[in-house]
Write a structure and sequence with these properties.
Blueprint (H helix, E strand, L loop, with lengths): L1 H5 L30 E11 L2 E17 L2 E12 L1 H4 L4 E10 L4 E10 L2 E10 L5 E8 L5 E8 L8 H6 L12 E3 L2 E2 L4 E15 L6 E13 L2 E11 L6 E8 L2 E11 L11
Antiparallel strand pairs: 1-2, 1-15, 2-3, 3-4, 4-5, 5-6, 6-7, 7-8, 9-11, 10-11, 11-12, 12-13, 13-14, 14-15
Length: 273
């Protein structure tokens, strides 16, 4: 289960739905990115103590419309290469629509992981200030599973959580502080949070580029234990660009490193050379 949820980080049915405007209490002011931002990553896996490139990922954010209102459309595509395909095929496409205040509106994940294919969808509405989710899962055997959930607190998915986290004001946090971030897929809500790990200067793999970074861990509590699923490094500037992600799997570890970017909102002042 942990691996299935994690693959949503390193990574459509069209249905008409009506919804109320997103609740302001689930929003946050966006100062980190703008429409037209594109980020590119190389994926690596630790194979017998050697880091091997096993694929690529790309993330884009553009201004769009959803349900008659202006919104951000963010997508993440991960693709394994021939080296990994021999052992495990990874073809994930994640799509998220968020209001301009980054309240989530819709999420979809289509994933081929190994010999398994499934689709997750979530539609968000905000009746009486609550967070209501209509959830849809297409299982590998073709079964359609529907459910609805409603919570007093805000709930996110694996795409909208990244957009939100990039806009945190870290000056408010101390090293070790935990930030509750409940995340859901189409089947269940996780007891999860972000832990602020402090600042670190990171040297990019394969070149001499260094970044000053803020470091966060994504932690989930399952079976009575805390599991760090992901540690990510974002630039210590106004963009908060994810430049490195460490993914902890039960069968090994994987990493993603920023290869390039364009269309960023602010000067990348955290780059040291």
């Amino acid at each position: 289960m942990r691996n299935m949820r994690l693959k949503a980080l390193v990574i459509s049915l069209l249905m008409a739905v009506s919804f109320a405007p997103a609740s302001a209490q689930c929003g946050i002011k966006n100062t980190a990115f703008k429409s037209g931002e594109f980020l590119y990553y190389d994926l690596f896996f630790n194979w017998k103590f050697i880091w091997v490139k096993v694929g690529t990922a790309s993330m884009s954010t553009v201004t769009s419309r959803y349900g008659g209102q202006q919104a951000y459309r963010a997508s993440l595509i991960t693709r394994s290469n021939n080296k990994l395909d021999k052992f495990f095929t990874l073809r994930d496409t994640l799509l998220s629509y968020c209001a301009t205040d980054l309240s989530p509106l819709y999420f979809r994940k289509g994933a081929r992981e190994g010999d398994r294919y499934y689709v997750d969808e979530i539609w968000y509405t905000y009746p009486q200030g609550n967070c209501h989710m209509k959830q849809h899962r297409i299982e590998n055997d073709g079964r359609h599973v529907w459910k609805q959930s409603e919570y007093q607190d805000c709930v996110y998915d694996m795409m909208s959580i990244f957009l939100r986290a990039r806009n945190f004001d870290v000056s408010k946090y101390k090293v070790g502080d935990n930030i509750p971030m409940p995340v859901s897929d189409a089947k269940r809500l996780s007891n999860s949070w972000l832990k602020y790990q402090g600042k670190e200067t990171f040297k990019m793999e394969g070149n001499n580029v260094k970044y000053r970074c803020l470091v966060f861990s994504f932690i989930e509590r399952e079976d009575g234990k805390n599991h760090e699923l992901l540690r990510f490094y974002v630039t210590d500037d106004a963009n908060h660009i994810p430049v490195r992600l460490d993914m902890f799997l039960s069968f090994g570890s994987a990493k993603a490193f920023l290869r390039g970017y364009k269309g960023v909102k602010n000067p990348v002042t955290s780059r040291l050379n």
